Amino acid sequence: MAKLLSCVLGPRLYKIYRERDSERARSGAPETPASVTAPPPSSWDTYYQPRALEKHADSILALASVFWSISYYSSPFAFFYLYRKGYLSLSKVVPFSHYAGTLLLLLAGVACLRGVGRWTNPQYRQFITILEATHRNQSAENKRQLASYNFDFRSWPVDFHWEEPSSRYLVAHTLGRRMLYPGSVYLLQKALMPVLLQGQARLVEESRKRPVKLFVFGLGQAWAPLTPCSHSYLVAHTLGRRMLYPGSVYLLQKALMPVLLQGQARLVEECDGRRAKLLACDGNEIDTMFVDRRGTAEPQGQKLVICCEGNAGFYEVGCVSTPLEAGYSVLGWNHPGFAGSTGVPFPQNEANAMDVVVQFAVHRLGFQPQDIILYAWSIGGFTATWAAMSYPDISAVILDASFDDLVPLALKVMPDSCRGLVTRTVRQHLNLNNAEQLCRYQGPVLLIRRTKDEIITTTAPEDIMSNRGNDLLLKLLQHRYPHVMAEEGLQVVRQWLEASSQLEEASIYSRWEVEEDWCLSVLRSYQAEHGPDFPWSVGEDMSARERQQLALFLAQKHLHNFEATHCTPLPVQHFQMPWHL
Hints:
Elements: H1 2-9, E1 13-16, H2 21-27, E2 46-47, H3 52-85, H4 90-119, H5 122-136, H6 140-146, E3 149-151, E4 160-161, H7 168-180, H8 186-207, E5 213-217, E6 221-225, H9 228-244, H10 250-269, E7 274-279, E8 285-291, E9 304-308, H11 321-325, E10 329-333, H12 347-363, E11 372-377, H13 381-390, E12 396-400, H14 406-413, H15 419-429, H16 434-438, E13 445-450, H17 468-480, H18 487-497, H19 502-511, H20 516-530, H21 544-558, E14 559-562
Parallel strand pairs: 4-7, 9-10, 9-11, 11-12, 12-13, 13-14
Antiparallel strand pairs: 1-2, 1-3, 5-6, 7-8, 8-10
């Protein structure tokens, strides 16, 4: 009976991976949990085949899940329509609740039938036994066996907690929390109570004078007027977040599920990938995939590339393929709310996810920060620049098709009448300030600009000067070399950025007669005398011509062009390590 209940409540099983020779060699004669035997070799290269009862019940529950998702997104319009038609009265809501309760009971019965179907399937019983054994004891052998299954990631045991390194948990939950949020200290609240009560009374009095009201939770329950900040919050948490991160929309993930399963199978079976669940400090669970190349003869396998995907990208089918093909060790992860990761992809949640990913790479996988490279595509530039800013010892940063700031791109797709609301919403809730964060990083940086990019241009794809990658380069160079990037240097770099082909670039470069040996000697001499920390005052005593030559040299070293659209996979020959002295 206990096993039947486990089958009813257990996760959906998608695939049983084929066993790899490397696993057999490592495991030797495995000790399996009681009553668990390894699957026969013939079953390892197939999708899990449910019995008829489980299959049909799964289809019904999946259809109900899709309808629920559609109802959720359309609920504001439905409530408005029902209100206008007078259907929200008590006399009509009560019968509707009866129908809803009956439907829920029917779905619960379907779930029980699915559990019976699973219970009659020896493959599923074997899987649920291994899963329960792993939850009880996360031994290496149990984890190895569990990794042979692809199932609903919500049931995967947590492999790494954000507080694991040193004493971070103790600090965060004692002194750290109280220093960061002193308002949570009871004695301070007690001292401020008269002031808080006066403020609450003022809000109640003001709300009586205004027709538009918004419910606010505070010391009690009070009404406060709907402010511009409230508008921004509503926009960000409804339409804004889903427009910015369409990959977090359930219906899109449902449509992409077969492709994601195939991509994950390729990473596990062909690349020997290791999946892991990381728990971030905000409680979100982050889905990761690690491919270890340190055991190969290729020297780049000793370096780890952490990949940050775009706003509709997943590690299963995303930019991880480029560094994998180049022979690097790779760690991919999904944004909060994407595929197996929980939560919603707001900037702070993104930063928390990136933090636990870096901690996992250092403290569990054993890579030093000096051996870690951050590689980001598109909107992934936010988390990559955040990690570079927060972990200054990171080896290098590569940003492909990224931008400097979200506001210009948000204004591009919204009506002019919403300009103020859009700017306020982005700044307060969706502030992806890539350039500001990148300027706080001292290490090597390479920007890859796509000459036919249709996403991060603010006019048309043909207008290469509207590509926000240009602004990211200019802000970085102006911060690092302010004297070189004065008016003369800025002008010549803009001319170089206007080039849309390698031939035009080379023509501009040769016209200014840039002497690379001289540029390198100037920069190395300055570094030897003043140290590596930016900003540099190099160029302060140069002529305008020399500053222009040096500015063009630096621009050419920090930005490479790739003649392609935004979503074209980056060829391995374009994946190069950034220039450094």
